[in-house]
Amino acid sequence: MTINIYNTLTRKKEEFKPLEPNQVKMYVCGPTVYNYIHIGNARPAIVFDTVRRYFEYKGYHVDYVLNFTDVDDKLIKAARELGEEVPVIADRFITAYKEDVGALGVKEAVHHPRVTETMDDIIRFIATLIDKGHAYAADGDVYFKTRSFDHYGKLSHQSIDELRSGARIQIGEKKQDPLDFALWKQAKDGEIAWDSPWGQGRPGWHIECSAMAKKYLGDTIDIHAGGQDLTFPHHENEIAQSEAGNGTSFANYWMHNGYINIDNEKMSKSLGNFVLAHDLIQKHDPKVVRFFMLSVHYRNPINFSDALLESAKNSFDRIENALTNLVHRQQTSVNISEDNEEWLTTIEQFNVQFEKEMDDDFNTANAIAVIFDLVKEANRYLQSDQTHTDILQTFVDTLNDWLTVLGIPQTSESDLLDEEIEDLIEQRITARKNKDFQLADQIRDDLKAKHIILEDTPQGTRWKRG
């Protein structure tokens, strides 16, 4: 089956047709690295990593680019407040970003370009726009001439007149038209700056992505993605400057994920409901956080609360427990017989359904429903008097393949036998009696790492595989 993508540009689902066979050129707008990312930033990282993973699962090579904005007003302000240099702050939070999204199962991009490392390309891009009559210099600043691009507003589906009614020229701006936007900003005293034909300064926000996409993926790309809040003006401006400068279409498919609400209210610093991903993964299993994020279709808003996250944990535990039980049963099972071929057919039918849901605009919510349907069948099979190793392994492999697509680390069963577990528990009991709590905790943690859960009760220590 073909993959269908909802294209923000056309507002409809379209069959994905790559520019080159079995290749996907994909650009995702990354964070401004002046602080830890919040869960609103984490959602696109997870969503579009899953899109990438599914393309790879289907046999595509994905040239995946995610940029870092490592110089802008927020970074300059943070540098001033902290008494540090902009690159120092940027380096610190790029490292933090990679650690946080890495914990959430996000793969490294093929390219992670930074504004400060792409400056020559940005300056050349701006110069091209000026040469083609789409931009102009004004006392050290450079602005894009918005009305020079006939199709401005086509992504956000707004007319130029509607946009003009709400546009204003701020104090200090030297625009010719309120709709024009900055490509280059003249440096103020003490600010980090680069030399350019228009004087010392730094890029505007929008131009960086156009220059990076061109450098790493070419003039036209398959997919451009980001949060819904970037549709206008950021992505609208990217289209205008890219197509004006390159003379061809910029991106064939535009994908945008929905907002995150906190306890049914929009997340914002002013409401005090701002949740950092860095803090969240200290409190909750990152696998569960990712599972929760994918439990809603990426284009829909998602409501976040501790109660909903706990519910997601309980659901995810059902999947992990099924995998654990399937692997554990293999130790006492026999080889396949022809009478059980129908189970292999059943599992393949679920596999077809999983791909059907993912092919439909990467509908992870429905795909997860298929996972639970297969878990239900697996549990039913485990109730059989006699199970077969090949059937059990097919259940395990299928579930693990799907979990890999969703970016959730595979769960492996402990290779410890029951008597080995009991022996370790006795060692832990002895260690506690000897007040060697460090050893006792180490034994508990080692068992937990192998998915053996201990429960201390008045009647003694109980354990379970989980």
TrEMBL record:
Enzyme class name: ligase
Residue sites binding ATP per the record: 269
Modified residues (Phosphoserine): 270
Entry keywords, A to Z: Aminoacyl-tRNA synthetase, ATP-binding, Cytoplasm, Ligase, Metal-binding, Nucleotide-binding, Phosphoprotein, Protein biosynthesis, Zinc
Localization per record: Cytoplasm
Note accompanying the cofactor annotation: Binds 1 zinc ion per subunit.
Family: Belongs to the class-I aminoacyl-tRNA synthetase family.
Oligomeric form and interacting partners: Monomer.
Listed name of the protein: Cysteine--tRNA ligase
Species this protein is from: Gracilibacillus salinarum
Name of encoding gene: cysS
